Amino acid sequence: MKKRYLSVVFIITILFMFEKSLAQDFDFFEPKVTIAGYGEVHYNYSKTEIDKSKKTLDFHRFVLFVGYTWSEKWSFKSEIELEHNIVDGEKGELELEQAFVNFHHANYFGFQAGVVLVPAGLTNEYHEPPRFFGVERPDYAKVIIPTTWFGNGVALYGNTKGLDYKLTVMEGLNSDKFSPGSGIRDGRQKGFKADASHLLYNAKLDYTGISGLRFGASYAYNNAQGDSTSNTIGLAEFHAQYQNHGLYSVFEIGNITYSTGEVEASHGYYFDLAYNLGLLFGIESKIIPFFRYSDINTAAKTKLGGDSQKEYHYTQWMIGLSFQPIDQLVFKIDYGKNEQELNSRETTLFNLGVGYVF
Amino acid sequence: MISNTLRYLPIILSLHFCAGVITSAQEIKEEVEKIIGNTFGEEVSYMIQKYSLSPEIKKKIEIEVKQRFFDAYIYIYTVSLDDTTIAYGFLDNVYGKTMPITFLVLLTTEGNIISSDIIKYREPYGGEVSNESWNDQFTGKNSKSDFTVGKTISSISGATISVNSVTKGIRKLILLYQSIKDEL
Lengths: 358, 184
Fold this sequence. Notes:
The structure holds two protein chains of two kinds. By secondary structure, chain A is mainly beta. Chain A has helices at residues 2-23, 140-143, 278-281; strands at residues 32-48, 54-69, 74-88, 91-106, 109-117, 150-160, 163-170, 200-207, 213-225, 230-244, 247-258, 263-275, 286-302, 313-324, 329-340, 346-357. Chain A contains three helices and 16 strands. Chain A has a 16-stranded antiparallel β-barrel with strand order 1-2-3-4-5-6-7-8-9-10-11-12-13-14-15-16. The longest helix of chain A is centred in the first third of the chain and has 22 residues, at 2-23. Chains A and B meet through α1, β1, β6 and β10 of A and α1 and α3 of B.
């Protein structure tokens, strides 16, 4: 019996070696560690009409990506982010923004489990500095879509015939931390022993079947809980981005509804228009001037109504330039003005930045 | 029961591993065959060659395109109809962020692109590079064509690394064909 067993193992081993040698042809995969990263350092100047100007120099984000691929289907990906140089009490943040095991069955189906990103809007999943205009991420991607929005959970994803889908179930939000000025932003639990009693559900569908164009929408739903409050939110957003023949255009619009509390809805949109002048000069480096217009109101609809719906409403215009000597490096400059609706108060913004990705 | 399972574990594992390796390679072969069949019809025949790149040609192309070859060889399919070569298929890989992207470029004997196809994409992000509409942009291009992403080749938001990588990979094969066509 033992002999028979050993001969079966032996035959299979020989078969395996034979088949493996055949399969080496066309077998391109090798297990691999990947180390990558990105970062951005900023100079920010802002001045409101009544206050003194504020000037800061900040290494805003330093991010390291570590990944490992065990096989063609199984891999691990992670991103650790240090924000604002240090971590000391309230200063700075060290965050595990992504850390998931990934199973990639085929292009049309895969899943992730661990710390995952919410696939809401254009910036949350793709946020390396060369990928957006302006030194800072668009305001929309801060208070309407609270980037970087991550948490513990699972996601199913796939791409077929130009359709790109993702379904995510993850930790919910802390409703105690919602505020009229920041929307749901401060409610993110960021994976810290996150309350899992009321999960967040998100579904995203994009279409990329037309060359250069991506457009789509997502919806997030969460019956958010806190120690003293409970608030069901729904975040619906639409996004579109076109980049071809040197032209770049971006449009995003989003709306958050709240079931209880003073604020009933947050609303915002922005658009970017840009063109790569490098093409006109026939150089590989990119010189991209851009224009942005934003309209943001984190308390767009309130129970109180009246001026309380104008208090956090502002519009912004911005002009700027991104210079990319190579695709992985970007030098940025921008200038803009925010105007608050309630008292027509203006804030002037001027920013400089350097970003990299590798 | 448990001891029985443990006993057969080596057999199960080796069979499982075997199946994994074979399936992946077989899938790639079958996909290439399907594309050749769909493009030229079932009556064509083809020959596969594991073509070793000469270090000089390899280096020259790598410097021009600013991307290394995945390996020291590529696979070349010579497609024939009634003993006459009608096209070539170049199968190669480029790296996305972490994994190889396997792609096929079909060329006329004059070196014009008939089609480009992503044969296997292995990463969770950037899979849109497999879209037919994106790959169609390469049809008709040759070694003299412009391959600038964002100008003549459109980018895909969310798939930037893959778009740049595959575009360079295709251009490398076009230049390679020009250098080696006489020996094929």
